[in-house]
Design brief:
The protein has eight helices and 13 strands. By secondary structure, the protein is of the alpha+beta class. Strands 1-3-2 form a three-stranded mixed sheet. Helix 3 packs antiparallel against helix 4 (201-220) and helix 4 (201-220) crosses helix 8. The structure holds 2-acetamido-2-deoxy-beta-D-glucopyranose (NAG) (4 copies). Residues 236-237, 294-296, 301 line the site of one 2-acetamido-2-deoxy-beta-D-glucopyranose.
């Protein structure tokens, strides 16, 4: 057992994708320091009392005897890349403390604004059109703050390269990056990853949504912008897969040329290649277009039902040993979709996984699924169910996050690969702490 000091004051800082453009210079890499100068010329805006540059010590708690080989660049995040990062004070946040926590605005970050996430069918025509135009803007605007990583050979760190990406693609890439098999002692371990099949699943996806929502608020100057959700309970088929909403598809599955996302392409390919990160990131032309085939997969013949959601909400325990896809009577494992919601024991595809597989196409390929914007609406609904569970069971405390030794999943570990660090255990608080709430819809 290794015991390290904890210097982390992390809850509810603004989420950042990584890597900050300002922190990938040879200089910052050489010193492992990511404390960029803010406008006032001091690291992390320390002169203006926005934050300070501090040593990063991530406490790793894992089972006795377990040997961790440090060949996976994401393990014990962000240790491989940085050991000094900004710690922001008060309502300030961001990789350089130049921004505000989610839900706060203004030069001094003292203006609070809690946005309401609504069901997409509750939006007015104008709100809906605005949402689609914001998404298109996010897909086509280069991120000023972040770059993404790619390599054809994960074994050799000197081949790692950073490239520009659009704001939406940075979001999509974060998901892709978290899912790649874990490199341990020279071999790839596919049994788990940093975002799925383990306790981090709900909080990890919550952070991604907060990241995207904030990025769009900043991009458009619209402080009231909230991501919509898709409440699929009771839908016989994908009722929002029409060109007025998320898009119809042709027989091959490609999105209709009249849909809002007809020309969108995935940011990464190479799902089946463990040894690559985001091949094709440097050449969008070779990427595949989005596709979907709702309701044709015989293994996922229908969407989860009202009853499935109610049964899922009844489990008292957030997660239980062995904290993976075999965990029984675990709210997390049921929500994620590895067990029957009713008995909590039988292994079957349900809930979150079922909706992915029902939609098929890009959504059916875990690593690429975030490229399809319907992913955002699906995960907002999964997050709404998490929020409902937290409220019903009065569970908004960090102690309910279980100790476990899945890589990157310990309560004190940083949600991987967000930047700066959010501890996994701090993510399961009421959504108001993150600047948003959900509308009531169909009784929930
Ligand atoms: C951080 O990394 C740098 C560069 O490898 C190293 O010189 C320094 O000792 C490390 N600091 C800590 C606190 O681990
Ligand atoms: C953060 O914002 C809140 C609400 O506007 C304000 O009351 C509070 O003083 C701010 N906190 C700090 C440390 O500035
Ligand atoms: C790492 O792999 C080598 C051979 O590939 C093996 O001898 C060694 O025991 C492994 N170490 C661990 C901790 O698994
Ligand atoms: C859903 O709609 C598609 C056509 O858009 C159709 O091919 C499929 O069979 C439908 N599935 C169900 C379960 O109704």
């Amino acid at each position: 057992m290794i015991v390290l000091c904890v210097f982390l004051v992390l809850c509810c800082n603004l989420v950042q994708g990584q890597f900050p453009r300002a922190c990938i210079t040879p200089d910052t890499f050489g010193t492992k320091t990511c404390c960029p100068l803010w406008k006032d010329g001091s690291p992390c805006g320390s002169r203006s009392h926005h934050g300070k540059c501090r040593n990063w010590v991530v406490p790793i708690i894992f089972a006795a005897g377990r040997v961790r080989q440090y060949d996976d660049d994401r393990l014990d995040w962000p240790k491989y890349y940085f050991n000094k990062t900004c710690e922001c004070f008060g309502n300030y946040s961001g990789y350089d403390c130049g921004d505000c926590r989610h839900g706060y605005f203004g030069n001094k970050c003292d203006r609070k604004n809690t946005v309401v996430r609504k069901e997409i069918r509750e939006l007015s025509l104008l709100e809906r059109k605005r949402f689609f135009s914001y998404l298109v803007l996010a897909k086509t605007t280069k991120s000023q703050d972040f770059v993404i990583l790619y390599t054809g050979d994960r074994h050799h760190k000197d081949t790692y390269k950073f490239v520009d990406a659009s704001i939406y693609d940075v979001y999509s890439w974060i998901h892709y990056y978290s899912i790649k098999a874990i490199l341990q002692n020279g071999t790839f371990d596919d049994r788990t990853n940093y975002a799925h099949q383990s306790p981090a699943f709900p909080g990890w996806h919550r952070l991604g949504l907060v990241f995207l929502e904030r990025q769009i608020q900043l991009l458009t100057g619209d402080e009231n912008f909230a991501l919509p959700y898709w409440d699929w309970r009771g839908d016989k088929n994908c009722s929002i897969c029409t060109n007025d909403f998320l898009g119809d598809n042709d027989v091959q599955g490609y999105l209709s040329q009249y849909s809002h996302f007809a020309f969108w392409k995935s940011i990464c390919s190479g799902y089946n290649y463990d040894e690559a990160y985001c091949l094709g990131a440097d050449d969008q032309n070779q990427m595949e277009k989005l596709h979907r085939k709702p309701g044709v997969n015989p293994d996922a013949p229908s969407l989860p039902t009202f009853q499935d959601v109610e049964e899922t909400l009844k489990w008292e325990d957030f997660d239980l040993p062995p904290y993976d896809r075999t965990a029984k009577r675990s709210f997390r494992n049921d929500l994620e979709g590895f067990i029957n919601p009713k008995d909590g024991v039988t292994q079957q595809t349900g809930m979150h996984n079922l909706a992915h597989n029902f939609l098929g196409g890009t959504m059916g390929e875990v690593a690429l699924s975030s490229n399809d914007p319907i992913f955002v609406l699906h995960h907002c609904f999964i997050d709404k169910i998490l929020e409902e569970w937290i409220l019903r069971h009065n569970k908004a405390t960090p102690d309910m996050y279980p100790k476990n030794d899945q890589p990157g999943q310990g309560p004190e570990e940083c949600s991987t690969p967000y930047f700066p660090c959010y501890r996994n255990k701090d993510l399961l608080r009421n959504s108001t702490r993150f600047g948003y709430i959900y509308s009531k819809y169909k009784g929930m």
